[in-house]
Amino acid sequence: MPLKVCIYEDDRFAQFYPLTFLRPVYLLRAGIVPLFERAHRHFDGAEFCLIARNSLAPLVAGRVRDLPVNIVKRGEGDVLFLNGRVRDFGNLAALIPGTRLSTVFINRGETIAVLFKSESVEVLPPIVTQKEFVDLYRAQRSNMADFETTATLYQYPWNLVEDIEARLEQDFDFLSSSFPPSSAVVHEGAWLVNRTRIFIGDQARVMPGAVIDASKGPVYIGMNTRVESHAAVYGPCYIGPNSVVLPGRITASSIGHTCRVGGEIEETVFQSYVNKYHAGFIGHSYVGSWVNFGAMTTNSDLKNNYSNITVTVAGEAVDTGSIKVGSFIGDHTKFGIGTLLNTGISIGICCNVYGGSLVADREVPSFSWGGPDRWRRYRFDKAVETARRTCARRDHTLAEAEIKQLKSVSDEAVDTEGIVVF
Description:
By secondary structure, the protein is α/β, with parallel strands linked by helices.
């Protein structure tokens, strides 16, 4: 009987704001694939489903069409609820087959996973909600074993940035055994270094004068992507499908699908539909979808005194423990030309930042308009109108479910219904 694996988000999702206003943590990415997909390689043959906040469930279902969302078909086997923040699986997967009792797997006091043995879930109906599993957990908790696992969890978004190089290496190596055939065109005059560690997807084009250097790590170029002349990509690096790489330098970064990227990008994650067409530097950062960087927009990722960088997360100042931290930018935010972003800044969703001066704020709330001299409230109807236009430029329609979630963020109506707390 196959194991059922339910990947859930817990009550720490706010620690990943502004990136988790419009997605669960497990849809974030450090390497080539989102976090939830990494679980497939550790639980081969299992059946998977996703658990999300109720307000996000329609968005998740629209983005991950091959997995059920917030619907658990109990089946006859064991059910494993797996925290979507898993950073390193450690010995977790090896422990599951030999576990005879319903068990809570923990690390440093945090719940990594909960295994419900088949006999313990027989009291549940064939189709179950996450709430029914939480209620069952509370009813049976005194009879469940606790087991310490070496698996660990992500705590904050900068942890994802710290892991970019390692995750890119791991994902590339895992996927390399099943790379599909490719009709990519690499023009004469393009320079490919360490070609055996470079994958270029179907219908992609690498133009004369482009450099793809995999001497320090693999490079994955997605299908239908174009690498322009005078663009340099240094591995480990991922460029998603349908993207354009313009003149500049990209180093150790994970760039999602349908992005246009140029200038200098270093150790940064772009979700998707990000436009950084012009010169300027973005480093050690995590950027949501539909973000536009005006020409020469640049962030700082290192203090002059080389001290640890503090980031404000949901109003709380947190020492990152790192001297290299850039920006965390929410979806649908735009930057005017010449914008300068201070070290460790967090900028919410649907912001319009301009003025050509240094934005020194620790945290810029969602739906902010203006610059450090004067912040105003970005009217919701105007913000949505701009978002619609931006999406239309990429032949995409802004989903009504996303508009509804944008409205709840604008109204500061945080919805926690659907999270799982064990």
